[in-house]
Amino acid sequence: MQSNTNQTIEITRERYDHFNPENLKFKSEVGVSEELVRQISLDKKEPEWMLNKRLLGLKTFLEKPLPNWGPSLEDLNLEQIHFYMRPDANKNSRTWDDVPKDIRETYEKLGIPKAEREALAGVGAQYESEIIYHNLKKEWEDKGVVFLDMDEAVHKFPELVQKYFMTSCVPINLHKFTALHAAVWSGGTFIYVPKNVKVEIPLQAYFRMNAKKGGQFEHTLIIADENSQVHYIEGCSSPIYNEIGLHAGCVEIHVLKNARVRYTSIENWSKNTYNLNTKRARVSSDGIIEWLNGNLGSKVTMLYPCSMLIGEGARSDYIGIAYAGQGQYQDTGCKVHHLAPNTSSTVISKGISKNGGVSSYRGLIEIKHGCTGVTSSVSCDGLMMDNESRALTFPSMDVKENDVKVSHEASIGKIGEDQLFYLMSRGLSEQEATKMIVSGFIEPVIKHLPLEYAAELNRLIDLEIENSVS
Questions:
Q1: For position 66, what pLDDT does the model report?
Q2: What is the reported pTM?
Q3: 256-265, 383-392, 417-426: lowest mean pLDDT where?
Q4: Cβ-based neighbour number of residue 470 at 10 Å
């Protein structure tokens, strides 16, 4: 990411695509089994209730079928994935000097230590299956903010974790990959913000996959107590290999009365990775959840952040960008369940596809009977950069109440040859003209991102265009 200072970190593909030689304490055999699930739990010295959740997840995973809708998963062979890998590094180092040199250099290329010094309240860094660095600035620690590795939280805050972990927000049996996640999850982030505390500087975690045929299954659990506020940012990336990788993380956010959570994510997995992530929030009375998502990596993404508005006056805002290039299918969108009166939601989605890529919006707005006074608006736009690409929309509205205001707008179109011609006649190259048109298309989304992340996402999309425009 770029900084507001004069010094910047140059964003190139090498920043994300480089890889380190494997240096692991433990690497599971491919495939998932009860023996592996028990091994993970034993390694983490987990209480029996967490082991039981894992075993229930494994049982449910084996019983549930693969999704039979959306992008094809036929190339995803789960029997060829390493589900658990422990790097040869200390867990939860508090200084970057304690992180092994090769791993530290990876995060320096990604700009994480620099961002921590200049713009963040705390940082977590996960490498393969474990958090290898975690730190919260003392100012926020003194105010009672908790920002921990999820493995550590199981031991330090067992009552909170047991109450919220994969219960009402993301049930274990939601679908096959939430069940798999419950069985093999490792690492991730735990955040608790006390009542009346507003964390004015973002917290960030960065998740990095390095090994071939790897899987990453971090768990993020955020609890914003009454009248609190927090902005949490996740970034992720992995090197390019010929072998398939899998990311099936899980994000659970609990927004209590009059609290506000902003969740920002830039997912830049390599194009051999299946990104089958689950993100959900429960929002109480007058609470606000804000989703800001950028998706441009992975072979296949299936990701639909979901808001359950359970208290009167609760609000959900979603803004997302997806970019699909050659060999990619980005199936993203948002789901909102209005489960209380006078709740509101907005959804803004932008999809870009090029060189045969597929970008699709898939969303749901549900308004239960009795939930009067609801307002909801959905806007989804798709931009196709050539004749080989596809942009799709799959909106769904399930409205069981009359006293509501619901609107939906969708547009799909090709990049205009007249626009290109006009800009090129003013001296721009085709590549420069294309970048300018795309920048204008995504500007309504980019302007909501923090400056550093807007710069990163803009540059990543520029790089994709540079690699695809002759």
A1: 94
A2: 0.90
A3: 417-426
A4: 4
Parse the chain into domains and list their residue ranges.
14-303
Assess contact for 10 and 111: CB atoms under 8 A: no
pLDDT at 468 > cutoff 70:
no
Scan for tokens 């919260």, then name that residue. Answer: 136
Residue 302: per-residue pLDDT: 97
Read off φ and ψ for residue 422, nearest 5 degrees. -60, -50
